[in-house]
């Protein structure tokens, strides 16, 4: 008798974008980070980085804070609790998918 | 069923998550230069107080070193992310500095400060701060610095004034200057950017 196929989880499309995934993972390791630091770590362009961070912000996964330090504007990003939960869920889903594919092999 | 390429893609994503989380955690500020700066400040204050016998030598040098540290730290850490580890270690050193300063000034004004007591207090406080930092960072070399400072504090308690001063100068050389230069060299070897990531 054939074993029933396990129900495979769907990967969260907001996090699935590679740059958005990298950004959330970077923010998971720090309290808050500046835009220029995120740009240096991901090697992304200003426009692309801004657009991806906005998507994460709209999904409620990151929070933005703007301030002036020595008269220079600074944009800080912080991961929210729902962002942390979404990343943890994404990792769980990835591992489940990988596990299922290894079982089939 | 997933193809090998899809499988690899999922594995790559897991690797990306791990690497990026590590990258964030590793990005604590670079503080090797502070050890060197304070080591030089200790020597400067010591030389000034020995030559001039002025009570101003230590407070003035320590205030100048404190100001210089805060100005330079403000510039160097402007774009660095804040991490829990960085905050924990920073708070230990800040409170050690404030406590030490207040205690020394108070003992000085009350007339109860002598060289044995000051060496014991400075040595033990630096041992506490180095020890706590080394436990957070799991850094054995800094644990060794904590032990050296504790040894200097003990020399202040049990040794003669000359022995205490020599122990303090030796501890300053190894635990501030040499350790600071070693930390700076280690920090400069740390990779900054790990490849590019695009959407």
Task: Tell me what you see in this structure.
The complex is a heterodimer of chains A (105) and B (199). Chain A is built from five helices and three strands, in the order ααβααββα. With 105 residues, chain A is of the alpha+beta class. Chain A has a single domain, classed as Orthogonal Bundle (Arc Repressor Mutant, subunit A). Chain A has a three-stranded antiparallel β-sheet. In chain A, strand 2 and strand 3 (72-79) form a beta hairpin. In chain A, helix 2 (18-28) crosses helix 4 (46-58). The model of chain A has no long low-confidence stretch (mean pLDDT 88). With 199 residues, chain B is an all-alpha fold. Chain B has one domain (27-76, 83-189). Chain B has helices at 4-26, 32-52, 57-76, 84-110, 115-137, 140-158, 161-189. In chain B, helix 2 packs antiparallel against helix 3 (57-76), helix 5 runs antiparallel to helix 6 (140-158) and helix 6 (140-158) runs antiparallel to helix 7 (161-189). The longest helix of chain B is centred in the last third of the chain and has 29 residues, at 161-189. The radius of gyration of chain B is 22 Å and the shape is elongated. The chains are: A alpha+beta (105), B mainly alpha (199). The A-B interface holds A 17-22, 25-34, 36-37, 40-44, 48, 52, 69-70, 74, 87, 91, 94-95, 97-98, 101, 104 and B 1-2, 6-7, 10-11, 13-14, 16-25, 27, 74, 78-84, 87, 192-199.
* Assembly category: heterodimer
Distance between the termini of chain B: 26 Å
Number of strands of chain B: 0
Helix content of chain B: over 70%
The biggest sheet of chain A, with number of strands, parallel, antiparallel or mixed sense and barrel status, is:
3 strands, antiparallel
- Structural class call of chain B reads mainly alpha
Q: Pairing-aware structural class of the strands and helices of chain A?
A: alpha+beta
Annotated CATH homologous superfamily of chain A? Winged helix-like DNA-binding domain superfamily/Winged helix DNA-binding domain
In total, the number of domains of chain B comes to 1
Mean pLDDT of chain B: 87
Strand order of the largest sheet of chain A: 1-3-2
Spans of chain B with pLDDT under 50 lasting ≥5 residues? 192-199
Largest interface: A-B, 36 and 36 residues
| β-strand number of chain A | 3
